[in-house]
Design brief:
By secondary structure, the protein is α/β, with parallel strands linked by helices. It has a single domain, classed as Response regulator (Rossmann fold, 3-Layer(aba) Sandwich), CATH 3.40.50. The chain is globular.
Length: 130
């Protein structure tokens, strides 16, 4: 089944680049939602089923670390697969990896991003089964 994906980044250009990588091939996509910060992402999550979260770390309002922390506290989506797509290379990445997130360093190739998505979702099947 196709995935419902949310791309969270304060850069519209970066969101477009990530979305373009999905359209070049890889797991089938049902819907792609976008948010410019973690607060917007939480609002989208409240209204939509999401199978995979792609998150930048450094964003205004609610950053990626806080977003993932809040998701991990929400029983209905605590296991939501998350991929951090960031230029960050600090110990904060290790902390997020301990929370189950994967990391793709910017700039990235479409192939690396798609391979990480396949790894996180177990292939083409949607995580939610919906």
């Amino acid at each position: 089944m196709a995935l419902n994906v949310m791309v969270v980044d304060d850069s519209a250009v970066m969101r477009a680049r990530i979305i373009r990588a999905f359209h070049l091939g890889g797991p089938p996509i049902r819907e792609i939602h976008q948010a410019g910060n973690g607060q917007e992402a939480l609002e989208v999550l409240a209204r939509n089923w999401i199978d995979l979260l792609l998150v930048d770390i450094n964003m205004p309002v609610v950053d990626g670390i806080e977003l993932i922390a809040r998701v991990r506290k929400m029983p209905e989506i605590t296991d939501l697969p998350a991929i951090v797509v960031s230029t960050e290379s600090s110990s904060r990445i290790s902390m997020l990896q301990k929370e189950g997130a994967r990391f793709v360093h910017k700039p990235f190739s479409a192939e690396i991003l798609r391979a990480t998505v396949v790894e996180m979702t177990g292939g083409c099947a949607a995580v939610s089964g919906q």
